[in-house]
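Quick question, first post here. What does this chain look like in 3D?
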Amino acid sequence: MTPEPAPTVAQLLAFYLEAGVDCALMDEPVNRLSDPDPAPAREPAEAPQRALPASMQPATPPRPPAKIEVLPEVAIAAAREAARTAPTLEALRTLLETFEGCALKNTATRLVFSDGNPAAKIMFVGEAPGRDEDIEGLPFVGRSGKLLDLMMKAIGLDRSQVYIANVIPWRPPGNRTPTPQETQICLPFIQRQIELVNPDILVTLGNPSTQTLLQTKDGIMKSRGRWVDYDTGTRNIRAIASFHPAYLLRSPGYKRMAWVDMRSIAKAMAALAERAV
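> Answer (accepted):
Ran it through. Tokens below.
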């Protein structure tokens, strides 16, 4: 038998095309029946590194010191000691700016120390600064401050003739009520502030400042309009309580009673002026 001739390339391509092969995947043929290649040998594991001696270890960055909370009784004692050493109002202000015993300082924008005339014969004291006071660094500059200006103007006074401060010199967060501990920590500073100003008349505005400074448990409705003595430690000052202007904005019906208090203050000032003559 004569063997069939080997197919040509054209014949093979025609056969593959009829069998459904329409593209070449690789340049070289692959034997799918042969054994797969053995898995590549794993690289030898690296030898464990030897620990460096302590002297060659990289330096660990120091951790920031933890903030130490001051106990209230310690802070109160520190406030008393600091306040009594202040010889002037400016020195007292500097002490407050560096005093770390009251946590309100950490949340407030700035210290709200005072406004007005340090040599004034009349001093007004409120409770604590609000948002506007915290921004400007001055007491009673918001809506309640504008009302206080009007109340003073009604009896012939302005800020150049009075001295204004607060029991708490930092704004409590969200204008919340200061805690009793915060009030006691700040109390020695306002007491020293009153002593250094040495006014003839002290006016406490609102229930908190009245109860704190005049040492009474009576509410403002009962304590307002009554003259009492405030002892600075060196002399007695005539003191009177009245409504806080912020309360009058919320309850305008009590403005009449506040006007009675302001007239009483005006009479007391006139009496002091007559004695001076």
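The radius of gyration is 42 Å.
The longest strand covers residues 236-242.
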